[in-house]
Amino acid sequence: MNLSAVITSIVILFCLAVCEGRLSTRCYVCRSRGELGDCKDPFSFNDTSIKDLPGFPVSVTPCPSGWCRKQTEGIRGPADEYGSATDRSCLSQAPNDGEERCAEVKIRNKVSRLCLCRGDLCNMAPSSRHGPLFLVAFLTMVTISINYY
User: Fold this and answer.
1) Tell me, what DSSP letter sits at residue 3?
2) How far is CA 144 from the centre of its chain?
3) What is the C-alpha to C-alpha distance for residues 43 and 1, in angstroms, rounded to an integer?
4) Distance of CA 5 to the CA centre of its chain
């Protein structure tokens, strides 16, 4: 087996590992109010660890649109007598412009921070999302290796 075939195999296996065989996007679904609940930040769960939570307050659900959301109420102080709330779910359809973003919005006379993201389980706590950058760096390294040998 030549070096080119080995490197191609490594790249294919890497891409399969990154995709984890998923063809559909999933989103976290939960709601917490104030200091109570498991939905608030910091959100340190994954799709396996949520199964250990008593009463299943956080779930993972398929999302046909491929877009997840996270909304946090009460970002400028208490939203009401119950304090702030965090809500994570699937968007029924993608935003018109197709752009991921976070913004302050006013919903039911309350200022909230609404984040829209595209990707599997992306509505966890804000992350740096280095996945695509890592993939580009990896492929660049493979290309340099092929040209070197």
Assistant:
1) H
2) 31
3) 46
4) 33
Please report whether residue 108 resides in a domain: yes
Distance CA 83, CA 62 (A): 30
pTM for the predicted model, two decimal places: 0.67
CATH number (domain holding residue 82): 2.10.60.10
Residue 7, both tokens: 């490197």
SS3 of residue 114 by DSSP: strand
101 Cβ contact list (under 8 Å, min separation 6):
115, 116
Question: Which residues contact residue 59 at a Cβ distance below 8 angstroms, ignoring those fewer than 6 apart?
Answer: 28, 29, 30, 50
Is residue 8 included in any domain, yes or no? Answer: no
Query: Is 4 within a domain?
Result: no
Residue that is written with structure tokens 């491929």 in the block = 66
Pairing state between β 110-118 and 67-73: antiparallel
Structural domain boundaries enclosing 111: 24-148
Q: How far is the C-alpha of 144 from the C-alpha of 125, rounded, in Å?
A: 35
Q: Is the pLDDT of residue 115 over 90?
A: yes
What 3-state class would DSSP assign to 15?
helix
Quick: pLDDT tens for 39-51: 988 888 898 999 8
